[in-house]
Design brief:
The complex is a heterodimer of chains A (227) and B (421). With 227 residues, chain A is mostly helical. Chain A contains eight helices and five strands; from the N terminus they run αβαβααααββαβα. Chain A has a domain of 108 residues: Cytochrome c-like domain (Cytochrome Bc1 Complex, Chain D, domain 2). In chain A, strands 2-3 form a two-stranded antiparallel ribbon. In chain A, helix 3 packs across helix 6. The radius of gyration of chain A is 28 Å and the shape is extended. Chain B is α+β, with helices and mostly antiparallel strands. In chain B, strand 9 and strand 10 form a beta hairpin. Classes of the chains: A mainly alpha (227), B alpha+beta (421).
């Protein structure tokens, strides 16, 4: 073997050996069974913003109104205005920067898929995954129409998916806490005489919304929420 | 359930009398009323007669005297109890481990009752070989034990606009900390063989919400688990029996319970839970997305509004601290609303992305105090004041409120949730 070939082989070994040491071939335990296409198809219900995963089918605003009034309006209101504390689906345009933001399909959701995927998997509440694909498309078309995002004649399908423009698509940005809140990383937090004496500026007892008895929780609606 | 030794009726009366005693006694040093028959020089009933034998309580329950140590909810928060939250009674607990039955609940479609024989976990998408695992399959594989906190992103979410709920159970009770036993997700993904262009996972629950989130592949390969045990026993149904995802340090919503499916992909899905929910709306109307880490946070659990001070003199102030970015390295305590601080003592194990227990001892002679705690983690992050958070984020973001909590200890020994400035 030539000197050159020996050098090349040595170099290869030097490159290959550490890489192999760092990333051993994953061990196969022989546990688990191969999922069949039929098994996957039954559970594979997610949809991406680009429409990947959207089912076949179509539905019009008019057809959707019927489905909506029967299956959705009891909680969400006839016009998507919400009944009680159930989520509001329509209106809310221009409220995100105010003291009372109203987050709806039209005002907040960035993509059609975000709401379609959700309804497909979990709605109607208590009877999940019971709508046919055509009913799903129809009810989505109706909710879009409630938000003035499509006209009365609109038919939603995989083919018209990209015609829907969601107003708040650019309303989100990646977590920037490490830069925007950089000041919270502080090597020497103040320990002594940090500013003037503190005074009480607000009391929870003033609002008095804390449940007093676990069996009879208070029902007074207040600002804020868990979701 | 077994009949407790002490008759429940008598226990209940005694408990209520005791509770009333605390309030009446206030901080004057009054003791909880006791039954003289059981006190020296008399010999207590339980000393004279036999108690129940073994297996009278095949699965042991807390003493009936501890019946108020329970999860509680706030009904006005949500439209239904199937999509709602209950809170851990932090004020009644010590140490770092949360008992399984007291771990807060957050369900979006009620508690799925899954038959373990019918449980399946599917992994598919950008993989060489789509796989289905049974629970028995998961239990056959190598497993690890890890202690982690789990905090709902909306913990303290009701407090953005000011002090609102009077009790650390309600202000901070969407957190718990247990030891999980489970299979590293990396190991499961390796069985299926992840394709080179994969970057994201879509994880999905088997409950009536079919809760789904996108998880960066890097996080999954780093430290995520498919857990089937908590504190040694199988997961409780409320916590996703028989298997859930564990996403250490990251917001609780991603820890999908009753997990049934993992799809491997090359882009995030932008599901409802990571767009319409669990995004942090700022004052200008724009929202932060993918705010995964739970920043360092702490709360004094006693004294607190549900745990008033009953005695003047020696007082132990205690609480919990945690950080989703690493280990808690220090906890400071202030008695004057954040003007002066001293380091508290951390006792018990300090694990990565787990709760730590802290203590600060003092003498209290009835003077009003403004109690605060401040967590610092090993990345150098210092838990900010609520006002410092509001200055950057406004008050509309609901999630990720890790601001410093203030409790006002009054001369009476009562404690109130307050804001200071």
């Amino acid at each position: 073997m030539s000197k050159w070939a020996n050098l090349a082989a040595a170099a290869l070994l030097m490159l290959a050996a550490p890489a192999w040491a760092q990333q051993p071939k994953p061990h196969s335990y022989g546990v688990g069974t191969v999922a069949t296409p039929e098994q996957i198809a039954g559970w594979d219900i997610d949809i991406r913003p680009d429409g990947q995963g959207a089912p076949p089918g179509h539905g019009s605003v008019k057809e959707g109104e019927k489905v909506y009034l029967e299956r959705c309006a009891a909680c969400h209101g006839e016009f998507g205005e919400s009944a009680g504390r159930w989520p509001q689906l329509a209106q809310g345009k221009g409220t995100l920067a105010t003291h009372d933001p109203v987050k709806t399909v039209g005002s907040y959701y960035p993509y059609l898929s975000s709401v379609f995927d959700y309804v497909r998997r979990s709605m109607p509440f208590g009877d999940a995954q019971s709508l046919s694909n055509d009913e799903l498309y129809a009810v989505m078309a109706f909710v879009l129409n409630l938000n003035d995002l499509v006209d009365d004649k609109f038919v939603l399908s995989k083919e018209t998916w990209n015609q829907v423009k969601m107003p708040n698509q650019s309303g989100f940005f990646d977590d920037d806490r490490k830069t925007a809140e950089k000041a919270f990383w502080n090597a020497k937090p103040c320990m002594k005489d940090c500013g003037p004496p503190m005074k009480i500026t607000g009391h929870a007892a003033v609002l008095d919304v804390t449940p007093q008895d676990p069996a009879a929780s208070d029902k007074t609606p207040r600002k804020g929420g868990v979701d | 359930m077994s009949e407790p030794i002490d008759k429940p009726q008598a226990s209940r009366r005694r408990f209520l009398a005791g509770a009333a005693g605390i309030v009446a006694a206030g901080a004057t040093g009054g003791a909880v009323r006791a039954d003289d028959k059981n006190l020296p020089p008399n010999v207590a009933g339980w000393t004279k007669g036999l108690g129940e034998g073994v297996v009278a309580r095949p699965y042991g329950q807390p003493s009936p005297f501890e019946k108020d140590v329970i999860r509680r909810d706030v009904q006005w928060l949500t439209a239904s109890r199937e999509s709602s939250v209950s809170f851990t009674p932090l004020h009644e607990l010590d140490g770092i481990i949360t008992p399984n039955g007291l771990c807060f609940e957050r369900h979006h479609g009620g508690i799925a009752e899954v038959d373990p024989n019918d449980y399946r976990l599917m992994i598919h998408g950008l993989v060489d070989k789509p796989l289905i695992f049974t629970l028995e399959d998961l239990k056959r594989l190598p497993r690890v034990n890890r202690v982690y906190f789990l905090e709902c992103a909306a913990n303290s979410g009701m407090e953005w606009r000011g002090a609102q709920l009077n009790g650390c159970q309600y202000t901070h009770g969407m957190v718990h900390c247990v030891q999980y036993t489970g299979v590293p997700l990396k190991l499961l993904l390796e069985q299926a063989g992840v394709k080179p262009n994969a970057k994201w996972l879509m994880v999905e629950g088997g409950d009536a919400a079919a809760m789904n989130r996108s998880v960066p592949l890097a996080k999954a390969l780093d430290d995520c688990l498919i857990a089937y045990r908590m504190n040694g026993e199988m997961l409780r149904p409320e916590q996703g029996y028989p298997a859930r995802l564990v996403v250490p340090g990251w917001e609780g919503n991603m820890w999908v319970k009753w997990i049934r499916r993992i799809k491997v992909g090359d882009e995030p899905w932008y599901t409802r839970e990571e767009t319409a929910k669990y995004t942090d709306l700022l004052e200008d109307g724009k929202a932060r997305k993918f705010t995964y880490e739970m920043d360092a946070k702490s709360v004094i659990t006693s004294p607190s509004p549900q745990a008033p001070v009953k005695h003047k003199g020696f007082l132990v102030i205690t609480g919990l601290a945690w950080s989703g970015r690493g280990k808690v390295s220090r906890v400071d305590v202030s008695l004057d609303g954040g003007r002066n601080w001293r380091a508290a003592k951390i006792d018990g194990p300090v694990f990565d992305k787990a709760c730590v227990r802290f203590y600060a001892e003092t003498e209290w002679n009835g003077e009003p105090l403004l109690l605060q705690s401040r967590a610092i983690d090993d990345t150098g992050y210092v838990q900010p004041t609520k006002d410092a958070l509001r200055k950057i984020r406004g008050v509309n973001s609901i999630y990720h409120n890790n601001g410093i909590q203030t409790w006002a200890l009054k001369a009476s020994g009562e404690v109130e949730n307050v804001e200071v400035g």
